[in-house]
TrEMBL record:
<dbReference type="InterPro" id="IPR020575">
    <property type="entry name" value="Hsp90_N"/>
</dbReference>
<dbReference type="GO" id="GO:0140662">
    <property type="term" value="F:ATP-dependent protein folding chaperone"/>
</dbReference>
<feature type="binding site">
    <location>
        <position position="31"/>
    </location>
    <ligand>
        <name>ATP</name>
    </ligand>
</feature>
<protein>
    <submittedName>
        <fullName>Chaperone protein HtpG</fullName>
    </submittedName>
</protein>
<keyword id="KW-0067">ATP-binding</keyword>
<feature type="binding site">
    <location>
        <position position="81"/>
    </location>
    <ligand>
        <name>ATP</name>
    </ligand>
</feature>
<feature type="binding site">
    <location>
        <position position="338"/>
    </location>
    <ligand>
        <name>ATP</name>
    </ligand>
</feature>
<keyword id="KW-0143">Chaperone</keyword>
<feature type="binding site">
    <location>
        <begin position="96"/>
        <end position="97"/>
    </location>
    <ligand>
        <name>ATP</name>
    </ligand>
</feature>
<dbReference type="InterPro" id="IPR037196">
    <property type="entry name" value="HSP90_C"/>
</dbReference>
<feature type="binding site">
    <location>
        <position position="76"/>
    </location>
    <ligand>
        <name>ATP</name>
    </ligand>
</feature>
<dbReference type="Pfam" id="PF13589">
    <property type="entry name" value="HATPase_c_3"/>
</dbReference>
<feature type="binding site">
    <location>
        <position position="35"/>
    </location>
    <ligand>
        <name>ATP</name>
    </ligand>
</feature>
<dbReference type="Pfam" id="PF00183">
    <property type="entry name" value="HSP90"/>
</dbReference>
<dbReference type="InterPro" id="IPR020568">
    <property type="entry name" value="Ribosomal_Su5_D2-typ_SF"/>
</dbReference>
<dbReference type="InterPro" id="IPR001404">
    <property type="entry name" value="Hsp90_fam"/>
</dbReference>
<dbReference type="GO" id="GO:0005524">
    <property type="term" value="F:ATP binding"/>
</dbReference>
Length: 627
């Protein structure tokens, strides 16, 4: 038996590991299983190249709980170690640079990245164990070895009687970590971190019923057998080539990732690149609608099929964080616990690749089946609009597939809009005016007036559409978006012809004075000469003020506090309407006020602005008028 000291002079190295180097104690199991997987895959490689003269077979990893003995076993059938290799890899190599690192960064080590560089994964065992044993036999024809350490720098190393190849790690669970002796807890961790590890992982056994033989008698009782309970899928969909998968395979994998998600995804994007970095994965578009508050931790990050985190900020562009799926890359630099990212050039390249790949996929879906793409538009638009605002590279490509629907369920790209609308909706200054509504029901009257003129009206109702319109207008100087209720239709798209007013300038001045006596200060009275058949009173909301207010409410950088400003409206009065002439001709001030209030309330009703007490008074007044 050999005894000795681990090659490290920092006496409190293990408490430091426990306290600083890992954010989350539960990842010890992930680290130890990852080590076992690596050992198994190394053996596979050595047998493939003929360096290991042994049968690879069908190795598995096994996790066993011994609750009574307060022990947790992790067993692999991999490459194993000789006593000399235990001495080298466990006692020396792991601490070759760690001592210096810890001394330098002991106050901030929690946030530093050393696990991949210093081989500290094994020592995560001491986060939950008061004593750790290693019983290991190499694939080489040498005796097995038994290493024991109680968390101090002291260890023992002696021969063992293990006869099968591989390594067994035995954790003597510490009193403050007894939760890791509960089967449900270990099962939860295996499912979280090791669900897609490349080597089968056994955790207990399960009962399976054998199929009934074809020639079995009627009273045959199905036999049951105990089989290994393999808790992982070693060959998940993202590790396969897209050509080897069909739509059903992708959907099956989606439900494997999200067992509680019953709704089908709309479509998927398979990521697969090996240069200039290695990246695989599958992203799914779920039904999103216009809700921007969707949980953004649905995409899972893996490194060589080992779960790392579901916080993929930085790797996946922000606008795609609302998607679901998997990204797997060995080239993403991780911190000591592999649960956070370091910002570097590789990560930015990966993010740019994902942006480009998503844009290319959307374009091909649009080109291959436009009708299907249009049918899904309302469920994906919030992601694409956000992408256009936040990623210049996506914005450049988005013109080919981003759609602008009309209130009549027609869909146009921006180029198609320009082509189809230019004849009728270009104003006298040569600017194309794109009319839109935010709510088809609330703005119905204004939409109908525009349609009577032969104009198309878009239905743009996402919470960030005001920001997108600003961007599109700045990039297309001959184009403007105007909400259909922001002014009278003749003012929205000004043509050369003008309608002459029936009222003289003096009558207009008298009318305006009378109206402003009865109309609240939140309305700005505008007298307009319009068709005599047009509505006498029309309430509009100025495009600029309303848009700035909306942008402020959805994160427009403050917008000078406009989000808190009261609503301001224009009251457009048609000087050629018979009712307006009647108001002007009515000398009885009480009767005149009643006419004005009734006309204003009718205009407010069409804008869904008449509510509560004002609505009750309007109904009462209306009944009195028709007695």
């Amino acid at each position: 038996m050999t005894t000795g000291k681990i090659n490290v002079s920092v006496e409190n190295i293990f408490p430091l590991i426990k306290k600083f180097l890992y954010n989350d104690h539960e990842i010890f199991l992930r680290e130890l299983i990852s080590n076992g997987t690596d050992a198994t895959l190394k053996l596979k490689h050595l047998t493939n190249i003929g360096e290991a003269k042994v049968e690879y077979g069908s190795p598995i990893l096994e996790v066993k709980v011994d609750k009574e003995g307060k022990k947790l076993h992790i067993i692999d059938q991999g490459i194993g170690m000789t006593a000399e290799e235990v001495e080298k890899y466990i006692n020396q190599l792991a601490f070759s640079g760690a001592e210096e690192f810890l001394e330098k960064y002991k106050d901030t080590a929690k946030d530093s990245g050393i696990i991949g560089h210093f081989g500290l994964g094994f020592y995560s065992a001491f986060m939950v164990a008061s004593k750790v044993e290693i019983i290991t036999k190499s694939y080489k024809d040498e005796p097995a070895a038994h290493w024991v350490c109680d968390g101090s720098p002291e260890f023992s190393l002696e021969p063992a009687d293990k006869t099968t190849r591989g390594t067994e790690i035995i954790l003597h669970i510490a009193e403050d970590s007894l939760e890791f002796l509960e089967e449900f807890k270990i099962k939860e961790l295996l499912n979280k971190y090791n669900k897609f590890m490349p080597i089968p992982i056994k955790f207990g056994t399960k009962t399976e019923t054998l199929p009934k033989p074809e020639d079995a008698p009627e009273d045959y009782v199905n036999e049951t057998v105990e089989v290994d309970n393999i808790i992982n899928n070693p060959n998940p969909a993202w590790t396969k080539q897209p050509a080897d998968l069909n739509e059903e395979d992708y959907k099956t994998f989606y439900h494997e990732l999200y067992p509680m998600q019953f709704e089908e995804p709309l479509f998927n994007i398979h990521l697969n690149v090996d240069y200039p970095f290695n990246l695989t994965g599958i992203l799914y578009f779920p039904k999103l609608g216009t809700d921007m508050q969707i949980q953004k931790d649905k995409i899972q990050l893996y490194q060589n099929q080992v779960f790392v985190t579901d916080n993929v900020e930085g790797i996946v562009p922000e606008f795609l964080m609302m998607l679901r799926g998997v990204v797997d890359s060995p080239d993403i630099p991780l911190n000591v616990s592999r649960s956070g990212l370091q910002a570097d050039g590789a990560v930015k390249k990966i993010s740019n690749y994902i942006t480009r790949k998503v844009a290319d996929k959307l374009k091909s879906l649009f080109n291959e089946n436009r009708a299907d793409f249009e049918a899904k538009w309302n469920d994906i638009k919030i992601v694409l609009e956000y992408g256009m605002l936040s990623e210049d590279k996506f914005y450049e490509k988005a013109g080919a597939f981003v759609l602008y629907p009309t209130v009549d369920d027609k869909y146009f790209t921006l180029d198609e809009l320009k082509e189809n609308l230019k004849e009728k909706q270009t104003d006298k200054d040569g600017k194309l005016v794109i009319l839109y509504a935010g709510n088809k029901e609330a703005q119905h009257a204004y939409i109908e007036i525009a349609k009577e003129k032969g104009y198309e009206v878009l239905l743009l109702d996402s919470p960030i559409i005001s920001h997108l319109m600003q961007k599109l207008e700045s990039d297309n100087k001959d184009l403007t978006f105007v909400r259909v209720d922001s002014d009278h239709i003749d003012n929205l798209i000004k043509k050369e012809e003008t309608t002459i007013s029936k009222l003289s300038d003096e009558e207009k001045e008298s009318l305006k004075t009378s109206l402003e006596t009865y109309i609240p200060k939140t309305y700005t009275v505008q007298l307009e000469s319009m068709d005599s058949q047009a509505a006498p009173f029309i309430i509009t909301q100025p495009e600029f003020m309303r848009r700035m207010k909306e942008m402020s409410q959805t994160g427009g950088g403050g917008m000078f506090g406009m989000g808190n400003m009261p609503e301001m409206y224009n009251l457009v009065v048609n000087t050629n309407a018979p009712l307006v002439s009647s108001i002007l001709a009515t000398e009885d001030k009480t009767a005149q006020e009643s006419l004005v209030k009734q006309a204003l309330d009718l205009a407010k009703l069409s804008q869904n602005l008449l509510k509560g007490e004002a609505l009750t008074a309007f109904v009462k007044r209306s009944f009195e008028l028709i007695k």
